[in-house]
Design brief:
Layout lengths: L19 H11 L1 H5 L2 H19 L3 H4 L3 H10 L1 H14 L1 H7 L7 E6 L5 H20 L1 E4 L2 E4 L4 E7 L4 H14 L9 E7 L7 H4 L6 E5 L2 H7 L1 H14 L5 E7 L5 E4 L2 E4 H10 L10 E12 L14 E10 L1
Parallel strand pairs: 1-4, 1-6, 4-5, 6-7
Antiparallel strand pairs: 2-3, 7-11, 8-9, 10-11
Helix pairs in contact: 1-6, 1-9, 3-5, 6-8, 11-12
Bound molecules: S-adenosylmethionine.
């Protein structure tokens, strides 16, 4: 079911997520102290943002996420617009939406690689929240003569080499307080692991039991730091993920995502396609099939959103693979 690759723009608001302003508000509530407490505090935050921006420009990713103030700065500046974009992207991809909202009634396991900064976490939480609002209204089943709501659990594993623990905890507290009522948080289980994904084995990552893996704006970092180990990580997914598992990769569209192999430079998705689905002309040999893709898609946010820092639009490529 390969879709149109020239489709250019994602919806500002996909109904499967909470409205973009509510997503942004979650960041405003969580980082109220840094954003709104005083002019001095906000100025300090802007200074940290500048410093992270310069690290990212120099591709010094370890330095960019090396302290709590820098991680808070990243989260306040980059994660809100990404959370709204990812909400729209993840809901636009039906198989991904089905996993996050547990449509087949079974518990679902999702791994977010490089997911410490909170954007995919918040977007997924927002999609889970809307599904539970519907569940309590409509999905009442009769079990042993009683009307019961059959609820499945979404297990979310965020793995990141930097220590985003405090930030994930702060976001999670806001999600529990503002979005997940009626003990719904019991069914939205979040685990954060601080580790290098390239050094973790299939058991630590629970690869055989995963329904979805996301690599959002992280693949470039992996390959720019450790090319050979990154290739081995993808080969590990080839070997240990179970049939039916989905893998979603999104990365900046354009030359920033080009990779040099030998003397040649080419888009990183070509290399990933080769590892996952096979060489051109031999795609049937690969462990995965591409079920959806786009080489350049925009998410342009609502200009009326209220937030004290500019919310950037995003242009990226994505690939959704399914394990054969
Ligand atoms: C550009 S940020 C993207 C964050 C988030 N996925 C988003 O889209 O907003 C890349 C993330 O990948 C993490 N990362 C880089 N190398 C990693 C590795 N080897 N193992 C785990 N995480 C890694 C970084 O610490 C950072 O949080």
């Amino acid at each position: 079911m390969a879709r149109d690759r020239t489709q250019g723009q994602l919806a500002i608001h996909n109904e499967a997520t909470l409205p973009p302003q509510e997503i942004i508000d979650l960041f405003k509530i969580t980082f109220n102290d840094e954003l709104y407490q005083s002019d001095e505090r906000f100025e300090q935050l802007l200074k940290e943002i500048k410093s992270v921006k310069s690290d990212l420009y120099n591709r010094d990713y370890i330095e960019a996420f090396s302290s709590d103030p820098k991680r808070v700065a990243y989260c306040c500046r980059w994660s809100p617009p990404r959370a709204t974009s990812y909400g729209s992207l993840l809901s636009h991809l039906e198989p991904v939406l089905n996993v996050i909202q547990c449509h087949d009634g079974a518990d679902q396991n999702v791994l977010c690689v490089g997911g410490g900064a909170g954007s995919e976490f918040v977007s997924i939480a927002s999609m889970f929240t809307t599904s539970r609002e519907l569940t309590s209204k409509y999905h009442v089943k009769e079990i042993d003569g009683d009307d019961m709501v059959k609820k499945s659990t979404l297990n979310l594993h965020l793995v990141d080499i930097a220590n985003w623990r405090t930030i994930i905890k702060r976001l999670n507290d806001s999600i529990d307080e503002k979005w997940l009522y009626n003990n719904e948080s019991d069914f939205f289980k979040v685990k954060f692991t601080e580790n290098d994904i390239l050094k973790m084995n299939e058991t630590e990552l629970d690869l055989p039991n995963l329904n979805l893996i996301t690599l959002l704006f992280t693949t470039n970092e992996l390959f720019s730091e450790h090319k050979a180990e990154s290739i081995r990580f993808f080969q590990k997914m080839n070997r240990f993920c179970s049939s039916g598992c989905y893998l979603l990769i999104a990365e900046s569209a354009g030359s920033f995502s080009h990779i040099t192999v030998g003397t040649k430079k080419f888009p990183i998705q070509f290399l990933i396609d080769t590892i996952l689905v096979g060489k051109k002309g031999q795609e049937d040999d690969g462990a995965w099939e591409i079920v959806d893709q786009n080489d350049s898609i925009w998410y342009r946010g609502d200009l009326k959103l209220d937030y004290p820092i500019k919310l950037e639009n995003m242009r990226f490529f994505y690939r959704l693979y399914k394990k054969k």
